[in-house]
């Protein structure tokens, strides 16, 4: 694909406290990060180790708050809903109005992003092919955008980058096999890697006989700190492209 594809986004701000009803500037700060990371225009791209520089991909994807709602009326692309629910778990309650959440907009036309007080996770995502009413990504307000209610070390907007990677069918870079060396992310140009990495590892970090360069822990699909992740590979961009050509092709028109 050579043309940029723009994905319309609806952000559901589901808030219990006034602080969780985060500001437009915090939402805009998240969109800015996405539009950098998926265009290889992130300010930290130069940190990619030389040996992987050629693998860093421009995924040719941009994200814009929706300007038309499902009824065809003008919208800000932001839905704000006050809830009695103090915090949500990863059981999709935030996606359902009758459970204190906010109902999804049609998932073939919008990327639904829910922002709320989330327990036990920074975020989670639906892979392609699931039920439309549960499709999209959920991000904790403490990891959404780069200002306001965000908390270090997940204050760089990279949780949404990671979750939208899943939404476009990317797997975790270590292959989701615990610490094993037999799992795969189904991408050819990412090194085989044992388990996830945390924090800010130093390069090279070896596992699974993947020397001399070792784990690509600076990939958005690892679990390192936001400031330590700054690339998708070309193989990952191809896999996202395949999701867009297949189960998510409604976004191409
Ligand atoms: N734990 C979450 C998941 O499995 C997201 C991790 C995001 N990491 C980050 N540095 N923001 O999808
Ligand atoms: Zn993940
Ligand atoms: Ca592994």
TrEMBL record:
Domain of life the protein comes from: Bacteria
Disordered, as annotated region: 66-95
Peptidase M43 pregnancy-associated plasma-A domain segment(s): 103-245
GO terms, molecular function: metallopeptidase activity
Keywords carried by this UniProt record: Disulfide bond, Hydrolase, Metal-binding, Metalloprotease, Protease, Signal, Zinc
Family: Belongs to the peptidase M43B family.
Annotated protein name in UniProt: Zinc metalloprotease
Source species: Nonomuraea antimicrobica
Full-protein interval shown: 36 to 288 of 302
């Amino acid at each position: 694909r050579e043309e940029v594809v723009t994905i319309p986004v609806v952000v559901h701000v589901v808030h219990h406290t006034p602080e969780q009803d985060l500001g437009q500037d915090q939402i805009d700060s998240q969109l800015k990060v996405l539009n950098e990371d998926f265009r290889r225009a992130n300010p930290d791209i130069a940190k990619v180790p030389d040996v992987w520089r050629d693998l860093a991909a421009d995924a040719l994807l941009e994200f814009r708050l929706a300007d038309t709602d499902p009824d065809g009326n003008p919208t800000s692309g932001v839905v704000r809903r006050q809830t009695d629910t103090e915090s949500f778990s990863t059981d999709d309650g935030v996606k359902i109005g009758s459970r204190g959440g906010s109902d999804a907009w049609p998932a073939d036309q919008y990327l639904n992003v829910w922002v709320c007080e989330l327990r036990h996770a920074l975020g989670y995502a639906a892979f392609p092919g699931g039920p439309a009413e549960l499709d999209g990504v959920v991000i904790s307000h403490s990891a959404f955008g780069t200002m306001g209610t965000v908390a270090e070390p997940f204050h760089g907007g990279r949780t949404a980058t990671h979750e939208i990677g899943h939404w476009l069918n990317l797997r975790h870079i270590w292959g989701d096999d615990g610490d094993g060396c037999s799992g795969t992310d189904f991408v050819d140009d990412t090194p085989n890697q044992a388990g996830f990495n945390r924090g800010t590892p130093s390069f090279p970090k070896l596992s699974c006989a993947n020397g001399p360069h070792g784990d690509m822990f600076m990939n958005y699909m690892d679990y390192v700190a936001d400031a330590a992740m700054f690339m998708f590979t070309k193989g990952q961009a191809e896999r996202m492209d395949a999701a867009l050509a297949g189960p998510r092709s409604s976004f191409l028109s």
